[in-house]
Amino acid sequence: MSVYQATASAPVNIACIKYWGKRDTKLILPTNSSLSVTLDQDHLRSTTTSRADPSFEKDRLWLNGQEEEIKEGGRLATCIKEVKRLRREVEEKNPNEPKLSTYAVHIASKNNFPTAAGLASSASGFAALVSSLAALYALPASPSQLSLIARQGSGSACRSLFGGYVAWEMGSSPDGSDSLAIEVAPQSHWPDIHALICVVSDDKKGTSSTSGMQRTVETSTLLQHRIKHVVPERMKAIKEAILVRDFDSFARITMQDSNQFHAVALDTDPPIFYMNDVSRSIIALIVEYNRVSIENGGKIKAAYTYDAGPNAVIYAPKENLKEIISLIVKYFPQAEPFKDPFGLFGAQGVGSGAVVPGFNEAVAKPFPVGAVKGLIHSKVGDGPRVLSPQEALLGANGLPK
Length: 401
Ligand code: DP6
Description:
By secondary structure, this protein is of the alpha+beta class. The chain contains eight helices and 16 strands. It is globular. The model has no long low-confidence stretch (mean pLDDT 96). Bound molecules: ligand DP6. The site of ligand DP6 has 15 residues, from helix 4. It comes from Somion occarium. Belongs to the diphosphomevalonate decarboxylase family. Keywords: ATP-binding, Lipid biosynthesis, Lipid metabolism, Lyase, Nucleotide-binding, Steroid biosynthesis, Steroid metabolism, Sterol biosynthesis, Sterol metabolism.
């Protein structure tokens, strides 16, 4: 008897132009377009195995080994239903194809990073789910077509269907058929953009993106200005910057847009604060690091950006990462030795950190160990990958291994 099963992995993406606000909460249609960089799956990824079998009684899903309920009409159910619909189209065109769309599916998914790291896993998670189902069903669908489905799992997930530099075009159709991800440039176009994720410790339960952005849509007047006048210009400008590999413009726009996203969060009633003192100190360090460079006739060397939480993501050309990591480690001493995936620091390790000549050390106070509880060094990466059967998360019995 045939086994119908496929495994895929998908990357995390971090936005430079932020998605914040929905015009349709069910279809997940945004109030503005957004743009992100896809990060390397060798560092952060979700992996998902899907299997269809006539003996399965119902669709079931396990996340990191725990079974999750697939709520009727919920985001998971919608994604599964939509991929099955595309499979049915294939079966109607080719009557010899097995009727996989009529079978229930078992889905097992895991992230290689702990949920406690405070990194959003919904983007890579839904992208991996849709990619594994598309592989299982041998769908002749493009990444943009699959992004229409991943979008209905979590908005930002649509951008994880591509590697490199990715735009989510908001579209205008009420049915959402033109609200999809497109590749602005592949990873190979500008491979030397690196990312340093500073995992900031945070005890309080933050406001989720989903509920936070709806409150912003309902109450913020600044958001209206942002979506009408600011984002359309920025989308154009950052795409151009990417196409000509202009880090200076890319960085300016990225930092401005992070700032404005947090400004509209503050403009929400009641206000939402995602950044904390550690986040703000990292901004001060990057601003000073760039100031020193510009004052010496150089260019911007790093860009910070923050999502709906206190973690910083610092984008920079590869050649600046050693200085940036040294700087962060000086102000935010690490309990664990820095994992150095690109071998920047050799046998000595990162040590106790250092600043570049001319740096005004008074722009921030050094924090105790644990304020930044981890540093993840990554870079721009590729899109979803279909993996070999050896990497399956489901055993021969169709249950998680
Ligand atoms: C701040 O995609 O998590 O990270 O569509 O409700 O699932 P839902 O929201 P989500 O929001 C992400 C918001 C953001 C900005 C971004 O990634 O563009």
